[in-house]
Amino acid sequence: MDATELQELEPSPVEETPSNSKDDYFGDQNVPPQPHAIGLSQHSPIWYLTRIQKYSSIAFTAFTTAHIVNTSIIPLVTQSVPASEPYLLLTRPYYQSWPIAEPLFVIAPLSVHIASGVALRLYRRRVNAKRYGAETRSEKKLFSAALWPKVSGTSKLGFVGVPLLLGHTFINRAIPNQFPGGSSNVGLAYVSHAFAKHPLISAAGFTALISVLVFHTTWGWAKWLGFTPDQTTALGVERQLIKKRRWYIINGVAGAVVALWMAGSFGVVGRAGEAPGWVGKMYEEMYQKIPIFGRWA
């Protein structure tokens, strides 16, 4: 072909690519991810683990809300532990009468929530190892600080909350089940007796448990709702103002919930005094089975 027959053309920018070839070249952006052979869409494990962690928190949040109502709001309204006990007993059949109800609606979601959080950290470490080219154990050890993802404040509260929650479950479920009647003997009077006999330990334990779990839950839901300070899309000075405002709002909500919970638990239940007669003696026998602290019961 003669050079004189060639025609000079201007380069075509991306947005002017002919419509009949655009989809072939760039792929159809509106087509959802195609499923694999096993029926799963082509999302990364992080996508699945994040959603597992998110949705598993719904059941436990609902349980915690009901628990706040039973152990704080109702005692605040009645100003009496004996008058509040029947309301606590009304909700128990929903998660204790059916043998697998409590494991299914409380223990399982909580376990899945914790496991998915740990799995997320392990998978992100694996991704970082590939990014840094760390394949051998010595290389991973060399880049150890860089490989592990940063632990957020919410995650730190979660890690602290796990042993506190396990201890609470052990004291209120495992130990009473060793006695006639099982956990049906445990109510608000069980807590009142503990405050009367061991005020410092009880106050410290409940303060730590309530504060850690409420702040963890509040910040966690703020993240799921896209409301944490770092999730703002604003820029410049406005970004700083919004971040500060959100920080105060989230902590304010968490602080208000903690104050409400403590008002009923400490102000009413914690001041109700010792349980009378054989019930009080049984409670003291239960307290003696608490590791470490039981020796002072």
TrEMBL record:
<feature type="transmembrane region" description="Helical">
    <location>
        <begin position="195"/>
        <end position="215"/>
    </location>
</feature>
<feature type="domain" description="Mitochondrial adapter protein MCP1 transmembrane">
    <location>
        <begin position="163"/>
        <end position="273"/>
    </location>
</feature>
<keyword id="KW-0812">Transmembrane</keyword>
<dbReference type="GO" id="GO:0007005">
    <property type="term" value="P:mitochondrion organization"/>
</dbReference>
<dbReference type="GO" id="GO:0005741">
    <property type="term" value="C:mitochondrial outer membrane"/>
</dbReference>
<feature type="transmembrane region" description="Helical">
    <location>
        <begin position="58"/>
        <end position="78"/>
    </location>
</feature>
<keyword id="KW-0472">Membrane</keyword>
<feature type="region of interest" description="Disordered">
    <location>
        <begin position="1"/>
        <end position="34"/>
    </location>
</feature>
<feature type="transmembrane region" description="Helical">
    <location>
        <begin position="98"/>
        <end position="123"/>
    </location>
</feature>
<keyword id="KW-1133">Transmembrane helix</keyword>
<dbReference type="InterPro" id="IPR012472">
    <property type="entry name" value="MCP1_TM"/>
</dbReference>
<protein>
    <recommendedName>
        <fullName>Mitochondrial adapter protein MCP1 transmembrane domain-containing protein</fullName>
    </recommendedName>
</protein>
<dbReference type="GO" id="GO:0055088">
    <property type="term" value="P:lipid homeostasis"/>
</dbReference>
<feature type="transmembrane region" description="Helical">
    <location>
        <begin position="248"/>
        <end position="269"/>
    </location>
</feature>
<dbReference type="InterPro" id="IPR039960">
    <property type="entry name" value="MCP1"/>
</dbReference>
<dbReference type="Pfam" id="PF07950">
    <property type="entry name" value="MCP1_TM"/>
</dbReference>
